[in-house]
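Methods: example folding runs. The two proteins below were folded one after another, and each record is reproduced exactly as written to the output file, sequence line first and structure-token line second.
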Amino acid sequence: MRLDAFDESDGYRVWLDDEETRMLIDTMEERGESPHLIAARLGAHCGLRRDEAAQVRAVDVSENLGEPNLRVWENTAKMDKYRETPIPRDLADRIGMIPEYRDGIDVDDAVLDVTGRTLNRWVKRAGEQLYSETSDEGWLEVTYHDLRRTWGVRMLEQGVLPSVVMLHGGWEDWDTFREHYLDEFSPHALKRERGKVDWLGGSEDSTEEQEHEPVVTASMP
């Protein structure tokens, strides 16, 4: 877990590693089963903002070249701003089946039926539970937006073009995106760089392995 203090307010930005992301998702599922699980994965695996996740409907799941995507509306009432982001197949299937198995939910109804603030509370409560289990105070700082933050940085580190991450995540301002994502690092990236330093336990083998990993370049979108 990596924390960075906000410049003009209390609290911290948080980046989770893959295991911590899984721990948070599992804890949220334990607390609220399917709705909490879906909420967590919409942030961590699709990069949605909390208010966007709160509005997701079964009808928003689509296919493009045989791959599932999620149509994200800034406001489902106005239907005036839209993008698509990739979604894991199993999560797309779960969302698509909700109207079949839950009474009172149609394909054009929000599957979570809560507000963005409620989603943030779900994350905070899961963080509090993880803090009680691990004694890691960082869990008390995690918010829903940190799931999206983690998603964006990990997408870049996996080699996805910055312009494509901006497209999927709904970022329009290059300078803001560069400052908050291209200039940031996940715990995975920091561990990789630490492995290059011999007095920190690094080795020549670990350095050679990193030479074959994808490199993110700060090209303009």
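Second run, written to the same file directly after the first:
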Amino acid sequence: MNFTDALDRKMEEVKRPPNLPTGHYIWQINKVPEQETFESSRTGTTFNRLTFQVACVSAMDDVDPDDLEEYGNVAGTLNRKSFLFTQDPEEKAQFERSIFQLKRFLEHCGVDESLSLLEGTNDVVGNQFVGEITHRPDPNDTEVIYAEIGRTAAV
């Protein structure tokens, strides 16, 4: 593999690589999560997003071995797990559901329940969890499929 040689390839020869196959994987959190605030262009609602960068440790038994072989080595594959928190005061129930989902995720990562959520998010680096990869098509381009971490569990 040489980047300079790869640039000599015709664009028509470049094919989209396969997505990480669906199924369960063990993931490790790489760093303290990033937080950002943004406004939805569709609804105008302001959200906070908390995003954990994670790296794949290994695939579990339910991942198709043929799909894994086609994908290649999964160790070190990067992904993220995000949580959205609405800032709309009319959506208090949705906000509380998101807080609960974050709490459950931190528990799956082995964080001590006696910590605050802030302490837990800062204490989670290096911890592992089981995460299920699902595939979601891009609503604007059906040829683009995203491999996302859905449900999680403790290792």
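Comment on the second run: The helical segments are 3-6, 65-71, 92-108, 117-122.
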